[in-house]
Amino acid sequence: MTPASFDHHAPRTIDEALGLLAQAGGDARILAGGQSLVPAMAFRLAQPSVLVDINRLTDAPGLVEESDRLEIGPLVRHETLRRMPSRTPLGEVLAHLADHIGTWPVRTRGTFCGSLAHADPASEWGLAVVALDANLTLESASDGPRSVPASEFFAGMQMTAAREEEMLTAVTIPALPATARWGFAEFGRRTGDFATVLALVVHELKGGRMTGVRIAVGGVEDVPRRLGPAEEALEGAAPSKVRFEQAAEIASEIVEPLEDPLSDALHRRELVREMVLRALQRSTR
Amino acid sequence: MSQIRPLSFRLNGVDTSVTVEPRRTVAEMLRSDLRLSGTTVGCEQGSCGSCTVIVDGEPVRACTLFAVQLEGRELRTIEGLARDGSIQALQEAFVEEDAVQCGFCTSGFLVLAAAALESDPFIEDEAIDALVSANLCRCTGYGPIRRAVRKAAKTTRRAT
């Protein structure tokens, strides 16, 4: 249970960090909160020869909410989001989701960007960025920054569009309208552990009809994603039990679930139906 | 290839200097290099919470933090909290409520609860339930531990 040896670097600037990543040529890992990476190193599932510890960065952007967007820098911890004072719909969604992540000692260390880079399919933040149309900024020493939409960031289980020398330096989430409604539901076997299936719904009610409907699920397939046909079934409709059940049914039919010894495809499909239904019901309370 | 590093931080109020390999976790450094065995190591993968310590006022699992990350930081362990009396109410409540059986998880629970009571002396009962779910106990059970933390919270509030 002792990690393999590595060289530890604690750069003060993002440029310095990017330089170290480029220099290591793919043999480096970024250490942010360490709540996934360090256990993986203890098991020697990960054996980086260089750790670029970004916890000492002095020029990393923090958590900034503007009228049209929220920006989240590379060292924003889960606990910071859970306690954020924002009372906008977007702030409320993120604080609510953060409350479902791990437990306090994990949330004080673990970071939003680190969770996205780790790309566990059942991450609350993976679900959030996909549902909320976030943009991710990836930066490297050689090519500078580039912007990747959340829908193109996740490439598979614990795989992303980030190249080895790139760092996720910021995530931008567009603001939700003041009238936005949202609902979240997840099923997990243990409090604080990753959920089996989770669903997030966002929409607006205009004249009694739902518009801009977004339905995303995580933990089901190898990446979190929006479920277009389920969204379309509700677009322009008045919220009702029958409509919600129809959309949840569509959602459960179009997913291609992962299987594991504790949850087979049928189980996950049933969970998708129920979690989407609950998220929809919660969005209209 | 691995660099042995000098490292300076505050440990239980005392300036401390050691030399460590980067791969040394805070938990291993405490137990093996500094001979402070009050921090127990259960799972070594950030799941059980028995190695909980306080870094700059926040509870952290010592098995998921490398010692080199402590440079210039303030680390508090069960030994320091016991010595300065700041967990006396918790210790007494754990005894009175029979919240200790084998004792392996106890120091982790005490440190976790101490951090919570320091950060919010008016912590609500439901928040205490969520709090203790962070750490694993496999013999005493959570009933007595919850009761003990609630009792200590009341005692602490009366004292302030």
Could you explain how this protein is built, in words?
Chain A is an alpha+beta fold and 285 residues long. Chain A has three domains: 7-53, Uridine Diphospho-n-acetylenolpyruvylglucosamine Reductase, domain 2 (2-Layer Sandwich); 63-174, Uridine Diphospho-n-acetylenolpyruvylglucosamine Reductase, domain 3, CATH 3.30.465; 180-283, CO dehydrogenase flavoprotein, C-terminal domain (Enolase-like, domain 1), CATH 3.30.390.50. Helix content of chain A is 33%, strand content 26%. Chain A has helices at residues 14-24, 37-42, 78-82, 89-98, 104-107, 112-118, 124-131, 150-153, 228-234, 241-254, 265-283; strands at 7-9, 28-31, 50-53, 63-65, 69-72, 135-140, 144-149, 154-156, 159-160, 167-174, 180-187, 197-206, 209-218, 225-226. The relative contact order of chain A is 0.12. Chain B has 160 residues and is of the alpha+beta class. Chain B folds into two domains: 5-81, Ubiquitin-like (UB roll); 85-159, DNA polymerase, domain 1, CATH 1.10.150.120. Chain B is built from six helices and five strands. Chain B has helices at 26-33, 78-83, 88-96, 106-119, 125-132, 142-159; strands at 5-11, 14-20, 52-55, 58-61, 74-76. The interface between A and B is medium-sized, with 30 and 32 residues.
Number of strands of chain A: 14
Shape annotation of chain A: globular
Total discrete domains of chain A: 3
CATH superfamily of the largest domain in chain B: Beta-grasp domain
User: Which regions of chain A have little confidence, pLDDT < 50, spanning 5+ residues?
Assistant: none
Order of helices and strands of chain A: EHEHEEEHHHHHEEHEEEEEEEHHH
Count of distinct structural domains of chain B: 2
| Low confidence ranges of chain B | none
Radius of gyration of chain A, in Å, reads 19 Å
Outline the biggest β-sheet of chain B.
Answer: 5 strands, mixed
Give the biggest beta sheet of chain A.
Answer: 5 strands, antiparallel
- Radius of gyration of chain B equals 16 Å
The total count of helices of chain B amounts to 6
Helical amount of chain B: 25-40%
**Greatest interface by residues involved:** A-B, 30 and 32 residues
Tell me the span between the first and last alpha carbons of chain B.
Answer: 52 Å
- Work out the oligomeric state of the chains in this entry: heterodimer
CATH topology assignment of the largest domain in chain A? Uridine Diphospho-n-acetylenolpyruvylglucosamine Reductase, domain 3
The pLDDT mean of chain A sits at 96
Order of helices and strands of chain B: EEHEEEHHHHH
User: Strand arrangement, largest sheet of chain A?
Assistant: 4-5-10-6-7
